[in-house]
Amino acid sequence: xxxxxxxxxxxxxxxxxxxxxxxxxxxxxxxxxxxxxxxxxxxxxxxxxxxxxxxxxxxxxxxxxxxxxxxxxxxxxxxxxxxxxxxxxxxxxxxxxxxxxx
Length: 102
What we know:
Layout: H1 4-26, E1 35-36, H2 38-43, E2 50-51, H3 57-72, H4 84-98
Antiparallel strand pairs: 1-2
Protein name: Secreted protein
C-alpha cells in the first residue's frame, strides 16, 4: 500500500509539472514530453523527478530566446516596449489558445 505522504509527494510533482507546462505555454514554449518521471515515482525516492523530455530545434530555440530575454530583462514582462518578435510570439500564443494553430 502507498503511504499518504508518498501520494502527497507524487501529487506535488504532478502539480509542479502542470504549473511548469502552463508557464512555458504563456511564453509560447511547449515541451510535448514534459511529465513526471514514472521510474522515480516507482522507486519511492523523496520526490519524483519532472522529466522535461525532448523537443525539436524550434522549441529549443524558443526556450533559449525566452530565457535570454528574462535574464537580460528585455522581455515584455520587464516593462520594455514590445519588439516585433514579442508581438509575434504574443499573437502565436493567442492563436494557440484559440486552437487555430496546429
